[in-house]
Amino acid sequence: MAKGVFSLEYIMKTFLYRLVLLVACVGTAPAASAAKLGYDPSADPFEQYHAAIERAEREDKLVLIIAGGDWCRWCHVLERFLASDPQLEERLNETFVVMKVYVGFDNYNDFFFSQLPPAKGAPHFWIVSPQKEILASQSTGMLEANKQGYDREAFLAFIDEWAAKVRSGATRRVAAL
Hints:
Blueprint: H1 8-37, H2 45-59, E1 62-68, H3 73-83, H4 86-95, E2 96-102, H5 110-114, E3 124-128, E4 133-139, E5 144-146, E6 149-150, H6 152-168, E7 175-176
Helix pairs in contact: 4-6
């Protein structure tokens, strides 16, 4: 065995190195998780909004703004639910340009959200037309199956209802953003 391999100096350096690595990983875990879910505390929601509106206009879709963050258990449940059902996610993306806006301790995005009807928890949905009309504001509670997940049929009905409104042009103005 090499001399000094288990010296106090070696043990302390190894310990400090691992501690720094652990702190770095823990410190970046929320940001990595938020990025994975699509909620970015550092993103400018107004830039996101204008890009989503332009895309919705180009593609004849509505904008679905979702407020949430990595701290939100139901945001994780929603992400897993959609990821586990590619057909459902595809139908959602055929009707909506999905825009996720972070809300949480890192950034409440107060000014952006003050332009919308109040949220009733997170995740929360706002549906906006390409003409910047707020068509609906709703909690995702009506889409839940139980305390563990979302109801596929309720989600499909939600998507179908808005897809029909897009096709028929039957949308109602609530307020402009």
